[in-house]
Each structure stands twice: as C-alpha cells, then as structure tokens.
Design brief:
Chain B: Its EC number is 2.4.2.64. The complex is a heterodimer of chains A (419) and B (417). Chain A is of the alpha/beta class and 419 residues long. Chain A folds into two domains: 272 residues, TIM Barrel (Alpha-Beta Barrel); 136 residues, no CATH class. Chain A has 15 helices and 15 strands. In chain A, the strands form four sheets. An eight-stranded parallel barrel of chain A has the order 4-5-6-9-10-11-12-13, surrounded by five helices. Chain A has a three-stranded antiparallel β-sheet with strand order 1-2-3. Chain A has a two-stranded antiparallel ribbon with strand order 7-8. In chain A, α8 packs parallel to α9, α10 packs antiparallel against α14 and α13 crosses α14. The longest helix of chain A has 28 residues. Chain A is globular, with a radius of gyration of 22 Å. Chain B has 417 residues and is α/β, with parallel strands linked by helices. Chain B has two domains: 264 residues, TIM Barrel (Alpha-Beta Barrel), CATH 3.20.20; 79 residues, no CATH class. Chain B has an eight-stranded parallel β-sheet with strand order 4-14-13-12-11-10-6-5. Chain B is globular, with a radius of gyration of 21 Å. The chains are: A alpha/beta (419), B alpha/beta (417). At the A-B interface, α1, α3, α13 and α14 of A face α2, α13, α14 and α15 of B. The structure holds zinc ion (2 copies). The site of one zinc ion has 8 residues of chain A, from α12 and α14.
C-alpha cells in the first residue's frame, strides 16, 4: 500500500491516491475518500445487481469483525476467505473491528480482550482469536485490535491512559502473530490511535503507533457524539502532526458532511461510509448541494427558492422528526412529498433518481415496503460518493472554501421549491 | 394454429386487414394466439398480446401488492423475464389513492413498470382483510382501516379505481364467498357476480385500452358453476378467471371445479386461475387447460428464507445450511444462485434484508423458469413426459404423489408411473 500525495492544501488537506491495494496490488483509492460500508459483506439492502447499478464505487469494501466473528467456524470450513464466501469478486477487503452504526455496550474490555457484538450476542476476542479470525477472513487490510472504550463523557484520565497502553500492546502482539502467519503475508495492518479527549494521550498514542511497522492509522474514539467538533478537530490536528506523511489516516465513526470537511482539513484521508445507511434507516434522502460550478441561472433559481420557503419551517405541525436527522437530508415520509413527482435530487444519475419520484418513495415508506430501503440506499450512497468526488475536485481546483460555504449553509429541509 | 379470433383476418388485403384489426382492437385490447395444444391433455401454449407486451403462456404472475414487488426493483423483475405482474386495487385504492396514481400516469408510471399489469377488483381483500364488511346488491361496504370512514366498493367504484390504475387486465368485482361455505349464499353470490359483471362492463371507461375479465363463481357446486359459465360466456369479455377456489377447500373438489370450468370456457380466450401458485398445482392446472396464475406464496415464503427448488423447498435459515457451500439450486441460472451459497445466505439472514431479496429473486426465477419449461414442452409436444419427470423430481417416490394430482392428471389421460 502506497500513498501518493499530489497536493497538501492549507497545511492539512491532503489530495492523492492510495495505490497498490489488494493482493496483486492493482487497485487504488483516491483520497480524501471513503470505503464501501457493508454488514457481513453486503451493502445494507442491496444485492450485487442493484449495488452495481452505481458507478464509481470505492475499490475498498469494509467488513466489520462484529458482523462476521460468529461465522468463524463456517469460514474455517470454507477455507477460501471471506471475499469468496460472500461472492465479492473484484474488491479490496478491509476488516475493521466494530460496526460504526451499532454502539458497543461498555464495560466488557479487559487487559487481554475486547468484545464484539454479533447477532448472537457478545464474542470475546483475545489477540490469538482476533488473529485466527483474520487468518480465516483473509482481508487485504485490517485494523489491529484496539481498546477504544473512551467515548463516555466521564472517562477518567487513568482509563484513557490504559486504553492507549493496551492498544499499543495489542498492536505489538498482533504484529508478532501477523509476521508469523503465512496466510497474512502481503496483508496491510493499520495501527489504532486512541487517547480519548486528552491531548497528551492522543499525541503519545500517535507517536508510539507511528514507530511500529504499520501501513496506516485508524483514528478511534473520536466518533460523532463522543465529543464536540472543535475538540475533535484540535485532537485530530495534533495527532496527524505526529503521523508520517506517506501513510494514510482513516477516521472511524465520523460521516456527516460538515464533519468530514473539517476532519479533512485536519489531515484525515479516509472515512467509513456508514452515514448514507443511517440516513436510509430513518427514511431520509441526502439532498445537500455540493455543486460549485458557477451557473448564473441556477443562482437565480436558488435565490428564488430561498425566498419562497422563508418562514415555512414550522408550517407542517405534524412533522415529528427524529432528532438525529441532519440538515443534509429530507424526510420523505413527510406529507409534502406525497404528490411530488420530482426525482430525489434533480440531475442525480443513480438508479433511483433516473427511474423514480419522491411521491413513489413516500408511498413505499408509508406502506413499509422493503423497496424503500433499496432505493434510498442506492441514492444516498451515490450522493455521498459524489460528495467525496466534489471534495477532491475542490482540493484540486483550490475551491475548498467555496465548497465549504455551499455545504455548510445548505439546509435541505428548506430548499423546497414552489408547489 | 391461430385462434379463431384471428382467422379470416389473415386472408384480407393489407388495407382491409389493417382496418379490420382496428375494429377488432377497439373491441378489446387483447389477442390470443394459440401456439400449440397438447394432444394428450388440455394444456395449451399461447401468445397473449396485451397493450404493454406479449405474454407467453402458461404464465405465472408475481404479486406486487402495493405497487412494488417486495424489495425487488422493476429492472430486476424485468431481467428475470417477467411480462406481467399484479397490483392490488384495495391497497392501492387506499394508499396512495387513485387520484395520485392517475396523476403519475397510472400504476405503470407510478412504479415505472414497462410490461403488463393485472389488477384485482379489491373485493377479495375487503372480505378477507377487513372485518366489518357487508355485502349488499349495491356493493361491499366496509370501514376504512385508516380513518374509520364507511366506504362502499361498488362494481362501478372498483372499475373506476382500476381505470385510474390503468392496468392492462382488470378484474370484475365479484361477490366472494369462502369456498368452504355451502347453501343458498353460494347461489346468491354466483347470480350477483353475474349482475355485477354487467355493471362492470358498463362502467369501463377504457375498453379500448383495458381488458375486463369475468370471474366464474359457483363455489364447489358443479351445477352452479355451469350456470355461471353459461351466463358469463355469453358476455363479450376478453378473458375469464376461475374464482372462488384455492381458499382451503379439498383438493379433490378444487381440481374438479377447475376442469369443469375449462371444459365450458371458449378456446379462443385466456383462462386465469386465481390464487394458485404451488409448483404441483401449476403443472396440474396447466394440464387442465389454464393459462394464467398468480399467488403471493413464492414471494412471501422467500422472506422467511424458504427457497423453492425442483425437489420442494429449502429453508435457508436452518442450521444444516450454515456450512453448505452450494448454491440454493446448482442448476438454477438466477443471479442469486450464480453468486451466492446457501451458507452465505444463511449468514446474511442474521444481518440484513438483502438476504430476503436474494431468495425472492430466486423464487420468482424458479416460478417463471418452471412455466417457461412447461410452455416449451407443450410447444415441442412432450408435455406428458415433462409432467412425469417433474413429479419424479418433486416427490421422493410415487407413493408420495398427492392423490388429487394423480386423479386430475388421469382425467386428462396422464398416467404416472
Ligand atoms: Zn439519486
Ligand atoms: Zn436461483
């Protein structure tokens, strides 16, 4: 795995290509970018046929050990690794520890073990078991075992220090087994940077991890909800300063577009793409605008829309939004979309927008039809991937400020046009 | 071997031919060409020309109740070779409602389905799903489960909704009684269904674009069935359905009513056996002369992990498949079997809805492939042999052949060994 940076903008933002991915090294991934989020090797709701109606899918698929650990015995019998087991043919496999969408109950970590939760409950992993799993899964790249239980607001300094120490110890043990395991030759390992919300611990974790022979770094314990954005950015900036320039940094648990932009500025290269899935699960569609190509006609149109929609936010009294809903999405269950015959996003080339209308999606959602999840997942994934494309383009063109302005001021719920 | 409806047309000069065809198509937007008839049984293979495409019969029609087929995209359904699927008038009439669907250019436009659609009358769901329904000469009265308002589904209302849906085949509103009910109620329902057929015919605003099928009633009473057949076949409808069956009656009664109906139905019009979809039932009822079938079973059972296979079914969620690395059916050409193993589907069922979609795709492929093989064998004049092979594969031994199927097949000159 080799990171070729073509630009480093404004001190932190890195634009480049991660090359030499996969066993034969023929895959690459542009950064800043994201991995393809899966559960048990499947992008939620999608069969391979529907998934591949999307173009420009990331070349790397993320597996989470939590969704596959319970199948270890099956995989051992199968012998050919998870890629073949799941019918995934032409993709690089990255194996992470936890599912970023499912919160992990606290209080089950020991000096020697971490726990993951699958469909059948908790599975406790020692380094030996963790590495045995990696041997049967046979990913192209995996994150080392880590103690990331520092996200609760009352975590003590002592506990944070412990998590850094344990994670380093796990890494050393993992690497030891890794180098002795025939099946894992040529497989990349990412070290995990912990340290909770304590700056010195973050820096110590980064410095120590960077000393080990790892291919890149996972930044853990910084997920949405664990701390405020300003602190997260401050910690990430401090950490990335300690990490070697030529190795990629993957941030776990952060996916909101505004947070992604800020974290990219702080030096993050890679994200997990679980955000489109969360949006799908609440019946919403991503609709935020990241198009910064100058178009005078469009500018007029948008100004009109803003005027039209001023003060209508509370018009619909029964609008009972999930408080997790962000301003980057629209809630298609809302009655206003009942007879809206426009695509989810005008100009979007995804299968859903090419074929279907908001009114149909509204109908599928209110009748609890399974196709709603399929179509929303397709659109939300396409929209999210396109956002990363726009982000890279903006870095290449030096227009990141424009993009930031566009994305941050965007309020989907209010860009409803004239009836 | 063209059906009579087309005879006499072919010999005319092109211009007259054209104008004649126009007159004919003004009568009904449906043409049935009989491609082959089995010399032994009553089976036939036809091309059913409908407004959106030609349907090769015998055909199984998957059910997309609410304007969607259980997690499958219309592109997936089309690529499986589906030429016609169902929508349910009761559900769609409630949500999103006929006005909205009309605005979306009918159900085709709303769900973006390019091939044909058949809609039911809504009556069956009303009687089976809604507790407070009352049937009078006017229609079926029921309380809306959404707002509690009393609604009357009359023959006119049913056709009006189906006209808004724009289906290629509409079904008349019939007076549905359970097939296990006997006595005067069955006779009343049969006569009322005939009167309602006339009201439906009169109410159809789009006879040039939408076909209206009659539904033969009469319960399990042969005399009543015959009267119904006699009356309804006098009406100028483009096709007939055999109704009031597959509702828990004895299979012995079931097949006798089916074969009685096909004996009296005109050869040149399609016959649709409602609510039938188990593989054995399909093969036997094709032999009895039915052309079209529908059933929710293959898609419903898929969601519980039950995959249909030539030897019955396979419960993917059962532990025995956790380490079974074969596809569901090694001979199946569907996208699921080409890519995934039983073991992977078993694992995926614990994690994601896509597991259901995989089995749904397979089950629809199974039904459609079965009917294509049936048709092929009829065309090639080897349907009797097909039936024997099919039964051998489906049952471990001939002792396990269901008695009704043996009798039904014997009635059309097929002896199973
Ligand atoms: Zn889209
Ligand atoms: Zn299959």
């Amino acid at each position: 795995m080799k990171l070729e940076l073509s630009r480093v903008v404004q001190g932190g933002c890195r634009l480049g290509v991660l090359k030499g991915l996969g066993r034969s090294g023929q895959h690459s991934l542009e950064v800043p970018g994201c991995l393809l989020y899966t559960r048990c090797g499947t992008v939620p709701h999608l069969t391979q046929d529907t998934l591949h109606t999307l173009t420009n899918l990331p070349s790397v698929t993320q597996l989470t050990l939590s969704t596959i650990a319970e199948h270890q015995e099956v995989l051992e019998d199968f012998k050919d690794g998870f890629r073949k087991f799941a019918g995934l043919h032409d993709t690089v496999l990255y194996c992470s520890l936890h599912d970023p969408v499912t919160p992990c109950p606290a209080g089950h970590i020991t000096n020697k073990t971490v726990s993951v939760w699958g469909s059948g409950g908790r599975i406790e992993l020692t380094v030996a078991k963790f590495m045995a799993l990696q041997r049967t899964v046979r990913p192209d790249w995996y994150q080392s075992m880590a103690d990331g239980e520092t996200w609760q607001s009352n975590t003590s300094r002592k506990r944070v220090r412990k998590s850094v120490d344990r994670t380093l110890a796990h890494l050393d043990e993992c690497l030891l087994v890794h180098h002795k395991t025939q099946e894992l030759q040529g497989v990349a390992v990412f070290g995990v940077v912990e340290g909770g919300d304590i700056l010195e611990e973050r820096v110590r974790s980064a410095k120590e991890t960077a000393k080990r022979p790892v291919a890149g770094f996972c930044l853990d314990g910084l997920q949405t909800g664990s701390m405020d954005q300003a602190l997260r950015i401050q910690l990430i900036a401090a950490v990335t300063k300690e990490l070697p320039e030529g190795k990629p940094r993957l941030l776990q648990g952060v996916g909101r577009p505004d947070e992604v932009l800020a974290c990219v500025e702080a030096g993050v290269d890679l994200f997990e793409s679980f955000f489109p899935f969360q949006v799908t699960e609440r019946g919403c569609a991503l609709c935020f605008n990241f198009d910064i190509t100058p178009d005078p006609e469009r500018a007029v149109l948008e100004a009109d829309e803003e005027r039209d929609t001023a003060g209508e936010t509370h018009e619909n009294g029964e609008l009972n939004l999930d408080d997790q809903m962000t301003s980057f999405e629209i809630n298609l269950k809302d009655k206003r979309y009942q007879d809206d015959f426009r695509p989810l996003v005008e100009g979007c080339g995804c299968y859903c927008c090419r074929n279907h209308q908001r009114a149909y999606l509204h109908h599928l959602l209110v009748t609890n039809e399974l196709l709603a999840g399929v179509l929303l997942m397709l659109h939300n994934t396409a929209h999210y991937l396109a956002f990363f494309g726009a982000l890279r383009e903006a870095l290449a063109q030096d227009t990141l400020d424009l993009l930031k302005k566009k994305v941050l001021k965007e309020k989907c719920g209010q860009t409803k046009s004239k009836e | 071997m063209a059906a009579p409806i087309e005879r006499g047309v072919d010999t005319n000069t092109p211009e007259i031919n054209m104008s004649l065809k126009k007159t004919l198509s003004a009568v009904s937007p449906l043409t049935l060409r009989i491609v082959a008839e089995c010399p032994v049984t009553k089976a036939r293979a036809c091309d059913l020309v409908l407004p959106h495409c030609t349907v090769n019969t015998p055909v199984f029609m998957p059910v997309g109740t609410q304007g969607t087929l259980k997690g499958i995209t219309v592109d997936q359904l089309e690529s499986l070779g589906c030429q016609i699927c169902l929508g349910n008038t009761y559900h769609l009439g409630m949500r999103p409602g006929p006005e909205l669907i009309e605005k979306a250019n009918g159900l085709h436009g709303f769900m973006k389905w390019k091939n044909n659609l058949l809609t039911d009358s809504g009556g069956f769901q009303m009687v089976s799903l809604v507790e407070l329904s009352e049937v009078t000469e006017e229609g079926v009265k029921f309380k809306s489960p959404y707002d509690g308002k009393e609604i009357l589904l009359s023959p006119e209302k049913s056709i009006s909704i189906q006209n808004s849906l724009g289906s290629d085949i509409m079904m008349q509103l019939d007076d549905v009684v359970s097939s296990t009910v006997t006595g005067p109620r069955v006779e009343e329902a049969m006569h009322r269904s005939i009167r309602w057929l006339d009201r439906c015919i009169a109410a159809n605003k789009n006879p040039d674009k939408q076909n209206l099928f009659a539904i033969i009633q009469g319960g399990l009473n042969a005399e009543l069935r015959k009267i119904c057949l006699e009356e309804m076949t006098q009406r100028d409808v483009p096709g007939f359905a055999i109704g009031g069956l597959s509702g828990g009656e004895e299979k012995d009664d079931f097949w006798r009513m089916v074969t009685l109906s096909t004996d009296h139905l005109p050869r040149e019009k399609p016959r649709y056996l409602m609510g039938v979809g188990y593989a054995v039932d399909l093969v036997v009822c094709v032999a009895l002369g039915c052309d079209m079938f529908d059933c929710v079973f293959p898609t419903r059972t898929a969601r519980f992990g039950s995959a249909l296979v030539p030897w019955g079914s396979l419960q993917v969620k059962q532990k025995q498949y956790a380490k079974d690395f074969q596809p569901i059916d090694p001979d199946c050409q569907c996208p699921t079997c080409k890519r995934h193993s039983r073991a992977y589907l078993h694992a995926l069922f614990k994690t994601d809805t896509a597991a259901m979609h995989h089995v749904t795709v397979h089950n629809i492929a199974y039904q459609l492939t079965l009917m294509r093989s049936v048709r092929q064998s009829i065309v090639e004049g080897r349907f009797p042999e097909f039936i024997r092979t099919f039964m051998k594969r489906m049952f471990p031994s001939s002792e396990q052949y269901p008695g009704w199927a043996v009798d039904a097949l014997a009635s059309v000159n097929i002896t199973l060994d």
